[in-house]
Amino acid sequence: MNKELIQNWINKVVDESGLDEPLYSAVKYVFACGGKRLRPLMFLSAYLLSGKLITDSVRDFAVAIECLHQYTLVHDDLPCMDNDDFRRGKPTCHKMFGEANALLVGDTLLNLCFTLMLRSAQKDANAAKAAYEFSLLSGGAGVIGGQAAELNSINFAEQVEDIYYKKTCYLIWGAVLCGAIMGGLDEKTTLALKEYCFNFGFAFQVYDDLMDITEKGNAPTNSYVGLFGVEKSVQTVKCCTQKAIDALKEANINSDYFVDLALRAAGRKE
Fold this sequence. Notes:
By secondary structure, the chain is mainly α. The chain has twelve helices and two strands. 75% of the residues lie in helices and 1% in strands. A two-stranded antiparallel sheet has the order 1-2. Helix 3 (38-48) packs antiparallel against helix 4, helix 4 (56-76) packs antiparallel against helix 6 (99-121) and helix 8 (143-152) packs antiparallel against helix 9. The chain is globular, with a radius of gyration of 18 Å.
């Protein structure tokens, strides 16, 4: 199970989506610009804790989660949002295809996400419940709400934790929760995974801020590192990472993937 496998699933879905130009080329471009495919892999890792086999419904759901993640990135990069010219070293979608087309690409990916989830639900009753939970965590009270809070924040220092939880942790937790639901995991395991996700997600975001200093020479003022400095940020990453790993141990969740992921997010493992 790796990101190449997820990419193959994505390519098949996009090629069979019936999209016309320029949407087809733009969506293919967005997915070809790299990325860890972290969220669908976390979804699958949670699902596989059940011991069940990967089905077509599970594949559709995994791709759906990545569609939503990519939609958030395309829209975040727009001039009216973060106004970024590059993502992962390549021109952003609106730089390649124009602002209006990039807006429609984001809309297309959001719609495709729920098309796939509904198709999954036709074959797997658990997928309907999972899709409902995912829609809540990714919507206006979740990921989109976090973006709105960041754009409209008056005192970022007081809101930074809430913004990071909603923008980053909610989507990570949404992916893992869906895997737990579709796998039929018990409540104890699911709650431990939630504790893991929120600690891992926060560490992941703060570590990403720290990498901005390495790559760009400074961290944005409206970031955890920009507000509290490098030393506190490093300690926060270490503390949250340990809490994430401890949550797995306390629930006897044996997952090398989740442990390794937490260590990589803290910069403690390549």
